[in-house]
Amino acid sequence: MGTIRGKALVTGASSGMGRETVRKLAQEGYQVIASARRKERLDELAKENQNIIPRPVDLSDAQELEKFCQELSNLAEPISVLINNAGFSIRGALEDVSLSSVRRVYEVNLFALIRVTQACLPGMRRLKGGTIVNLSSIVGKFTFPLNGVYSSTKHAVEAITDALRMEVRPFGIRVVTIRPGIIATEFNDTANQLTGDLFSRTDPDYKPVYQAYGAGMAKLFSNVSIPGPDLIADIIVKAVLSDSPKAVYFAGPFVEEIYGQRIRMDDDSFDQFMSEKTGLKGLKV
Q1: Which residues belong to the active site?
Q2: In this predicted model, what pLDDT tens digit does every residue of 182-231 receive, in sequence order?
Q3: For residue 123, what are the domain limits?
Q4: Contact indicator for 183, 252 with CB cutoff of 8 Å
Q5: How many beta carbons lie within 10 A of that of residue 107, not counting itself?
């Protein structure tokens, strides 16, 4: 297989952007630890390239996470490329989302990201180099209604990543934020499955809100062409291979149409803009 460039770790590697990133890094000559919950998916992936090492782990399980992080800390050859990609979403009005569900989203999307990063940093400091790529989202900079919990985890990822970038630059470690727009992966199906039929369980007061939002989003998505995960995986690999990667990369639908407006508008104007875009402007219940 030629020279190994170094050891990489990709979390959330069993599908979507994570899986494509594993494939591309392995093709580029990295030995890649592919981590996710679904062992059979990882085993299939590992058959494609001998540079891929499957490592099943449930990042929402504190004991499994800690055991995994101890392994990472004890690797003979440290991780030089870390792709923090694991994440999931649940949706619903804030009043409808249980605190236990909120905690689980934070466990995976934020706390596991922090803990895995902590486990990899000492090795990177020894190497006097390395690249950490944290998957945020365009909703790390704004939010859709009924998506506050997920968006809040990505807002937190943005803050953690911005601070980390400055903290570890003196050691030669590069830290990159990726903000995908809407990408065609299993993410949405999983979110819908985990959310369940909130509409049937919500208080009657909220039903018009859910209905108006659903209609608004259907209109928003009506003429949108949604790219596959390769778009983002290519950007991740480009950042890893770059001599001087940018602090932030973004691509995909709504980057310009909504995220661009967030940058240009003041808070009140953007609130009005999003209320209109999502079908909730002027709604009275």
Answers
A1: 150
A2: 886 654 565 465 456 777 888 999 999 988 888 888 888 888 888 889 99
A3: 7-197+226-258
A4: yes
A5: 18
